[in-house]
## 1
Amino acid sequence: MHLTLKKISYLVGLLLLLFNASCFAHGVDSNTEQFLTTNEGSAIIPFLYIGAKHMVTGYDHLLFLVGVVFFLFRIRDILIYVSLFTLGHSITLLFGVFNHINVNVYLIDAVIAFSIIYKGFDNLGGLKRILGVQPNTKIAVLIFGLFHGFGLSTKLQDFDLPQENLIGNMLAFNVGVEIGQGIALLFILTLLGFWRRHKSYYTFSTLSNTLLMSGGLVLLGYQLTAYFTL
């Protein structure tokens, strides 16, 4: 399917309309913010819930996952790639919080946005055409997983979490993230599985990944604009 520049501009414009300012806001809702700043002691269940909620509503993480699994058809391959992504963001989430490694939130989110562009471009075969060889996709997913984890840890550190029972609470949060990722992935795979029964899945695969890249470009533009202006 051939996309004209005019069609792509329409798609990008549609994405800009869909992503309003509140969608891009950093942080969490007021109730969660109050809990994170006032909680003392162990709170396993609440942190499980917050972790799951953050992943399910984390549109940047979900867009990257869509790109990762778009052309994966075997359960084994899906498990391998998702496990690498999980390993990456689990390592940096916990390491970042426990060692107080705080990265500028807009820059780290810009890298996360770039990961979406990268995966969509990779799905279109762009990297192989430019480089002449196919980069190791598994290593790329693991590396981008590390950046996604730093994004999570940076947001958590904004709340100056109490140190009491921090390890248990952070482990619960991380498990919650994985639960949320599992729920979101099940939903994504169900939709893709249904769509894959139809020829339109392949007919519109270029359009789908172009949309994915466009979403990443919108997010990247917002994050870099916010970094240089706020």
## 2
Amino acid sequence: MKVLKIQTLGTGWHDRDEILLHGAFQVLVDFVEKESPEKVIDWNATESHRHALSEIKSLYRWWKERRPARGSPLDDSRLRRPPLKFRRIPGSEMCDLVRPDRRKYGAYYRALERHGRLEDKWLEEDQRNLHRLIEIRGFLWT
């Protein structure tokens, strides 16, 4: 039985789209780090081989170095974060979130908006690189 241990996902729940992305790139990492493809495959055999090796190296560096180095404005430790406060709903056991003053925490809300735009950009980048990996999957063998 084959088991794929995804090193980049922690314990707990992960949505399937995230598992798919991380699983696919774990296959690439295992291929590069465990199978030593540069020692086994003649990557100069064809233009397709040369292109595939270039993509393998590029995608591996992106996954191992550039993607983990992504930074968010929310990572700033100096950023003043609004407290989470709840109030009981009269006549109920339920609580409601008390919305913090947007003016008082303006920097936080601006950082939150910038983070949202970055997440959209990162999602597109993840998708584009997953497509690139799928395009060269036929070369991931030794």
